[in-house]
Amino acid sequence: MQVLVFDRREKKVIKKVGRSAIPSYVKNPGFLIWLDIDNPGTENMELLLKHFHFHPLDIEDCQSIIERPKLDEYDDYFFLVLHTPLFVKQTRRLVPFTVNSFIGSNYIVTVHRGICKPIQNTYEYLQEDQSVLEKGSGYLLHKILDALIDHSFPILNKIYSNIQSVEDDIFKKPSTKNVKTILLIRTNILTFRNIIFPQRKLLKTLEIKDMDFLAEALEVYFSDLVDHIEKIWDTLENYKELIEGVHDAHQSLLSNKINDIMRILTIFSVVILPLTLISGIYGMNIGLPLMNNGFAFVIIIAAMVLISIGMLIYFKHKDWI
Fold first, then answer.
1. Which of 80, 177, 245, 268 is most deeply packed, by most CB within 10 A?
2. pLDDT in tens, 92-124
3. 60-100 per-position pLDDT tens digit
4. 282: domain CATH number?
5. What values do phi and psi take at 2, rounded to 5?
6. Pick from 254, 287, 308: which residue ends a domain?
7. How many whole angstroms separate alpha carbon 259 and alpha carbon 46?
8. CA distance 98 to 148
């Protein structure tokens, strides 16, 4: 758990705030407090329930594994559930990472399971630059949401890089090995879309909300967040079409490769067929032409070679090979 307390009178961050001191800053207009909890265990949740007086159902949502993005409005605070994409290196898949936020007049509480890199970076940034803290909890909320949304852009760039890489691979050498990579990229794109889609409406709703800690001047800031998430959605739509096109191209190239193999094998079979016929006839134990000729074997082999060359010339003339 990390605690950031900003003294509005002294205009500075208070260092080393202990757990026991947190209740004295709650709903104290002289301070702005940001409580970041990365372990929603019983002790931490009891702290929120006892001193912040959050609704028990919201506390329960913080402890659940996954919740749909939503915005609950109460008399003196908002409860916001957002998702950000998390890349799991072991499986190479994207999964939704849940960030729960409570926003009041002089506080923000973020709750999530494990380290959240965008939030950690924002926390460290505010230790150095405190201009956002001077403006209040609404601007701090915007800063946190902006970090969570911007976290998606490097992932988008990585997905695009993977699409280009597999596209180059299939045109160099189409193979069934590429199918797994294509399906993995497509799965990640669909997962990403499922993460982003419900949050588009949520941010638009937050943009028009009217609360004391959400100043009217913040509307343009939240509008910018809406633009960012719409840009992410449009990019994912383009990537979805791109990977579908790559998949179709791969299937077509693979099909053409198989057709070429079958054509070559068919040509070999057709060329060998008359040779097999000749060898089969001369393998019979009956009287045949050239049986008493000392050069019979050479003549038969020469005939087979001429027949093979003649058939290949004919196939070439017909543009079959």
1. 80
2. 889 999 999 998 888 899 999 888 899 999 988
3. 888 887 788 888 888 888 899 999 999 888 888 899 999 99
4. 1.20.58
5. -115, 140
6. 254
7. 68
8. 11
